[in-house]
Amino acid sequence: MRLILDLFLMTPARQALADRYRQYRQYNEASPLGAALGCFWLAMAWLFLKLESPRWQQIRSQQITLFPHIDAQRPRPLDIIRYAIQSLWLIVFSMRRSAKRYGLGTRFKGLHNRYHDWLKSLPDKVQEHGAEESEEAFNRLGQGVRRIILGVMCVFSTILALLCISQPFDLSSQFVFVLLLWGIAMVVRRIPGRFSSLMMIVLSLTVSCRYIWWRYTSTLNWDDPVSLICGLLLLAAETYAWVVLVLGYFQTIWPLNRQPAPMPEDVKSWPTIDIMVPTYNEDMSVVKPTIYAALGIDWPKEKLNIWLLDDGGREEFREFAETVGIKYVARTTHEHAKAGNINNALKQATGEFVAIFDCDHVPTRSFLQLTLGWFFKDKKLGMMQTPHHFFSPDPFERNLGRFRRTPNEGTLFYGLLQDGNDMWDATFFCGSCAVLRRTALDEVGGIAVETVTEDAHTSLRLHRRGWTSAYIRIPQAAGLATESLSAHIGQRIRWARGMVQIFRLDNPLFGKGLKLAQRICYANAMLHFLSGIPRLIFLTAPLAFLLMHAYIIFAPALAIALYVIPHIVHSSLTNSKIQGKYRHSFWSEIYETVLAWYIARPTTVALFNPHKGKFNVTAKGGLVEHQHVDWVITRPYLILVLLNFAGLILGIWRMSFGPEDEIWTVAMSMVWVFYNMIILGGAVAVSVETKQVRQSHRVEIAMPAAIARKDGHIFPCTLRDYSDGGVGIELRSGNVLHDGENITLMLKRGQQEYSFPAKVTRVFGQKAGLRMDNMSVAQHIEFIQCTFARADTWALWQDSFAEDKPVESLVDILKLGFRGYQSLADYAPPILRSVFVGFNTLVAWTVSFIPRGVSRA
């Protein structure tokens, strides 16, 4: 190094570079090669770029902003490539800004807006040109004529669709076809409203059906048994996914978004209600808030009976029921679990309607008035369901730090699917937060006991008997999510087994009483829980080619790209458009992967032996005392990770030394494997149980309140969060409270004010934490009713998520996958730690070449 400097540089420059090299090595811990190359490229830059000019000095002063992923003080050997890639990105970025500056973007936006306005005005224009008159003329035709016309239209549409799906194209024609549909989809997806969603569904179905047709007719290798078997397995999984996709589009094509119906003004006409709260082994601290909230429901007290159904037969619970003035029921036998517990209580209850809450679901005061109105409007309405909302994070939200930031696993079902089911009169009873008409329940023999998902089976029986159902997407109760991933998986196993049991014992596709739309909605719900085996096939399919040289899709790489990529892109864009804020793109992959291994076996067993299996109570209200990896749960993910890692290594070897005509096929398989590894990394990240030491979960809120000190001074404040045992407040000024001080917290419910004793546990500036201290039973009831049971507490939670942005969501998933491998590097046994550390290093090194966005500030 010194010899080179002596030959080409003068003494001052040589000394400056030598000092810079020592700084890189001694103080910034750069590698010898990195430090040497850093000095070399710096010298070249000074020679050829005139870094002393004002313009270059300005760029150098913005090093951190323009090149955020490159540490100029600690150079790496390939930083010159990173600088080149980022510089090209910055040039493109500046060109885009220039285009907007000169009005190019504005002109395109103007054209887009005019197109959008034309589409919005299209229905009105159609009406102006006599659509209503045409409809009246059509209705005046005889029924037979109308059927013939509709039949001809359906036949013509079917033939046109079949031609579009089955017409063989050469690769260039296929490219033009998918490019055209993609361009239409990119324009349509930006248009608000349901019309654009319907257009997206048509485009997606066209591409996906064409893909499935191509797979069945052109991609199976009948000459190689291994390739044929592997190809058929993948094709079966893809067919399953396609069927679920099509049924899912039907299910959510037109969400009803039902609004509450008004109650009769004459309160005397309101029916009698039995509120039932079943419990088995849950702690008293979990049950109390639910009972206290039920006591405050707005309903005539003489028409309301609250039942505590204790299948644990605990004396403590009987005494509690007597203390608060509710009915207590216990059984000597415990057959049929929760369903048997409720059926036993129904023998004693006489109300006209039954409201059921799980023991951790705290109802709001408005629950009955918001749900009962539709029963007056529709005399055949047998069941009204409301969402299951959770104020504590589930394992995905807690372990990944995504609580209130990303829609959780249940948001899609209660935010969209149930609304879609309601359109087709196929709303499912979900076991809690629901009201059932007693005559309807008696007609079907009470709660179903033949399967472990008694709730869905009960609603199926109600629909078979001609009773209707309804759903209101306004949370009217909130409960506790499962505390650990193992408990969460156990709950999903029970759901999966139960739905498959129904599929075998009372298949909705057969039997009397159901409409076609109801059969489709129920069938799709049951098929959803059969996703375990298909998901495992998708996670291992590319390994068949990389490890066994089996052609699972027997076609050229270009053909595979022209059929597979449009199918994936269109289905992703369409689901993003439909699901929006209820399920962000790619998160379904994480949810299904975590469950796949564990639901595959019980659902398969239930298909062949539906009577096997028992009801398992989901534990609630537990603690996670320290952060750790659940190695028992993680084991199958680790096996899949190692298999895919082996496929990735072999793929690299085949890219270097394999046949040249297979390079693109190997490359596509490696991309698939890399994606699978990212998803598996996300599954591993979920299994890192985050510390949870709060027995009572806090709920964020902004509600007016006040505090009173012992000296009589009253200070207004804002309630920022609350739990069953304490609150957080924000005062308008500091130095008002002191640690350990006893005060009174004042809250309002309607026009009435309540006072609660509290103790200051911590003070930080204008904020303070209070512990509710020595409340009487009456005060505890009032506190629950002022906080958890407020009518507006949960109303906006489901609508608080941002709309889905697929690219941002993909970046989140990539980060999540990398986080999972970092956890493995931190927690794995020594024999595996080096593998994951090496993989993380490789991924981090690869990611370091990706250009970064620049703030416009």
Which properties best describe this structure?
857 residues; seven-stranded mixed β-sheet; globular; Glyco_trans_2-like; Cellulose synthase catalytic subunit [UDP-forming]
Ordered list of secondary-structure elements with their pairings:
Layout: H1 2-8, H2 11-27, H3 32-48, H4 54-61, H5 63-66, H6 79-101, H7 104-128, H8 131-140, H9 143-166, H10 171-188, H11 194-218, H12 225-251, E1 273-279, H13 284-295, E2 304-310, H14 315-324, E3 327-330, H15 337-346, E4 353-356, E5 362-363, H16 367-371, H17 373-377, E6 381-385, E7 389-390, H18 395-400, H19 411-423, E8 434-437, H20 438-443, H21 454-464, E9 468-471, E10 477-479, H22 485-505, H23 516-528, H24 532-548, H25 557-579, H26 587-608, E11 628-629, H27 631-657, H28 663-686, E12 688-689, E13 699-708, E14 714-722, E15 726-731, E16 742-749, E17 752-764, E18 767-772, H29 777-786, H30 806-827, H31 830-847
Parallel strand pairs: 1-2, 1-4, 2-3, 6-9, 7-10
Antiparallel strand pairs: 4-8, 5-10, 6-8, 11-12, 13-14, 13-16, 14-15, 15-18, 16-17, 17-18
Helix pairs in contact: 2-3, 9-11, 10-11, 10-25, 11-12, 11-25, 12-23, 12-24, 13-29, 22-23, 22-26, 24-26, 24-27, 24-28, 26-28, 27-28, 28-30, 30-31
EC number: 2.4.1.12
Function: Catalytic subunit of cellulose synthase. It polymerizes uridine 5'-diphosphate glucose to cellulose.
InterPro entries: Cell_synth_A, Cellulose_synth, Glyco_trans_2-like, Glycosyltr_2/OpgH_subfam, Nucleotide-diphossugar_trans, PilZ_domain
Query: Whole-number average pLDDT?
Result: 86
Helix content: 55-70%
Low-confidence stretches: none
The main β sheet shows up as:
7 strands, mixed
Tally of helical runs: 31
Number of beta strands? 18
Shape: globular
CA-atom Rg in angstroms: 32 Å
Strand order of the largest sheet: 3-2-1-4-8-6-9
Distance between the termini: 42 Å
GO biological process, one term: UDP-alpha-D-glucose metabolic process
EC number: 2.4.1.12
Protein name: Cellulose synthase catalytic subunit [UDP-forming]
Keywords: c-di-GMP, Cell inner membrane, Cell membrane, Cellulose biosynthesis, Glycosyltransferase, Membrane, Transferase, Transmembrane, Transmembrane helix
